[in-house]
Amino acid sequence: MNTAHMSPYAKSELREPDPQRGEHSRSCAQRQGKSFRGYIAASLSLIAVFAASGAPYPLYERYRIEEGLSTGDLSWATVSYLFAVLATLLVFGQISDYLGRKPVTLAALVLAALGSAVLLHLNGMMVLILGRVLQGAACGLAASATQAYVLDTAPRHPTWLGAATATNVSQIGIVRGTLGGGFLAWSSPSPEQAPMLASIMLTVLALLLVIAADHDPVGRRSGAMTSLRPVVAIPQAARPLIVASAGVFISTWALTGFYQSFAPTISATYLGTRNPVMAALVIASVVGPQPFGAAVSGRIPVRKAQVYGSVTFAFAVSAIAFGLYRHSAPLVIGSGLIAGLSQGVGYTASVRMLLDKVTGDQHAGLMSAISMISYIGSAVPSFIAGQLSLVMSLQTIATGYVGLAAAGALLIIGIRHRTT
Hints:
This protein has 420 residues and is an all-alpha fold.
């Protein structure tokens, strides 16, 4: 072949292959393959842990009737779960930076499976609380270590894949667990056991995949004990915005806690059916659209997204309360979809506003503060609603959530008007 008129680069392509270069390419491909297996294992682990936490929700009405529990008892179970998530996040949120992503992810999966195993044979209030605390601790570990595992092992292209998976897969897991639990409770001859057994099987599958994924992106290092000190900090630059953002965090998460505690009872009492599938749809209507709202929020200027999300959310919660008074399942579910979508818009915008004001080394403390505000905003109203449910109807209690959502929206509008 005549190579006189070929460029040096073209000529180089005709040379004998460089064994060292080929070995380097094979090594890179092997590392990428290990990383991708870790990404799949971490993603399935997130789904499995949060699906296990969502599986019991459609069964709450059955627990209430067959175990003699009150709506106040059910709210205690939700509060226990939420505080377990919060405590685990605050204390163990950085532990995987020292022990590695895989060991902590495996611990989350084991706790999730144990929680489901406890609920296999529910025979009282304390058993329900124990199962939910174990599942809450699992979710706390997964929300820190396993999300970081996803980010560390996600493919480099597309660049958005890791963040999208880490932030949205947990919601997908809750919806999957809730809907799957409702369907199994409706179709299985063992309605209380089938959802838990399915959850255990999924967590075991994820556990085996994590063990098989021999690539841990973080090596073990010293300092694990010092990492157990909770880090909650609101940096000075973010403090002017925290009041308005907290209004969004509290009002939106409060509604999620209300649904987690009472959706099966709402379905049975006000929507005319004890079908656990309907209870699952009621919960999923609020939780499911939140990731889509987060995606919409990224396309809107942050301050407008915060206002639009909070105002739309307040109107949607009002429509939910009206739907309960009208005993209208389509109105309750349809309004729940709008509430979930607008929650994703407003909540994401509020987080973005705060993060834009701080430096990278302040993110961990700020995110811990946001988590603390959000989980307390869900747990405290759920506890109060549970106690009030002993003396008043859930319809009346729902109007209190309308007031909370309206207060959050008015706070956002008022602060924005004052600052502009």
